[in-house]
């Protein structure tokens, strides 16, 4: 099965190169770095590195407290961080600058994986969340590189996707030293994929240990003072195609009752910034943007066309709708607004953060919008009910605080593996 998988990967290489060229055109200088996806990059002058792989922005944010703990506990060990997306790369540089060595993860082709491992020579590999690459996993085992999956999550949808390759995935998982799952449900799903009970431990979610950035609350308060402290403000964060129009239409509903309300909207992907701005203007909204007009003033919609700056805007808002949930994307990180004691709204599709979202809803810190047409009604209800917002915010923060400690549990596992 692995030989067949590798053969298909080689056949797909021309399409992979075409995709890289297209993405390079979209993301500026990305085309200069696409050789990294084949293991071609300048060899760093170190060995015995600790390697953390985080696919994109969400995984990088989740890994932030873990990477900081690794830097603190192993100050002499070089840190390698890999991502797959340009936005993930930008977030790594924003958080850590030159204190870590960043390179794009190679495609799961044997020659590319060989080059990558030969150059970074990791002492330990930490894969964040869900990335099962058979050739990479087998290559780590052959070289004696201990491999851990941390903050491991596996949605029902992802598990179904792996089923046709179950025998190969089972063999790949046998190359993993430890799987630190976010929840008992995630651990059970990894068990169904073929992981051994001895490999599995429930460590909790690293995102609960996410630090609130220094100054985020103060920046949020300053923004709110500029807009008017009593002005109703809500944020729609990490939105996708198919959601932005629904959010803008919901804001039209809100403005009919609260004419001074302000919507902050943060598209998930940079290529959608301009599209969302144009959509808002075409619906008749007065629009400001983060990059051009820093203070919305009397504007009705503020497009946050910047990456990695959500926390101050969460802090400035009365409530947060977290996107990727009105469409079947699976939802995004509900813990960021919860950390700031903001009530959370989500749509029906939250399978990527299933257990966290259900906990927040059960404890009263979040509410689910059953249908896209209900969003405006639910937002308006919360904007008009300060006591309910305060109750939900307190509960959201309480859930966030009660679940902390995953980084310490994962670091205990890391220490044990490295001592071996």
Q: For the record, give the distance between the C-alpha atoms at the N and C termini, rounded to a whole number.
A: 32 Å
Instruction: Find the CATH superfamily of the largest domain.
Output: 3-Deoxy-D-manno-octulosonic-acid transferase, N-terminal domain
* CA-based shape: globular
Number of domains: 2
CATH architecture grouping of the largest domain: 3-Layer(aba) Sandwich
Structural class, by secondary structure, is alpha/beta
Can you tell me the CATH topology of the largest domain? Rossmann fold
Radius of gyration equals 22 Å
Strand count: 14
- Biggest beta sheet attributes: 7 strands, parallel
Please report which band the strand proportion falls in: under 5%, 5-15%, 15-25%, 25-35%, 35-45% or over 45%: 15-25%
Q: Which CATH class of the largest domain is shown?
A: Alpha Beta
Order of strands across the main sheet: 3-2-1-4-5-6-7
Number of helices: 18
Question: Low-confidence stretches at least 5 residues in length (pLDDT < 50)?
Answer: none
Mean pLDDT: 92
Describe this structure in words.
The chain has 18 helices and 14 strands. The protein folds into two domains: 194 residues, 3-Layer(aba) Sandwich (Rossmann fold); 188 residues, Glycogen Phosphorylase B (Rossmann fold, 3-Layer(aba) Sandwich). The chain is of the alpha/beta class. Helix content is 46%, strand content 15%. Helix 6 runs parallel beside helix 8 and helix 10 packs across helix 13. The model has no long low-confidence stretch (mean pLDDT 92). Strands 3-2-1-4-5-6-7 form a seven-stranded parallel sheet, sandwiched between helices. The radius of gyration is 22 Å and the shape is globular.
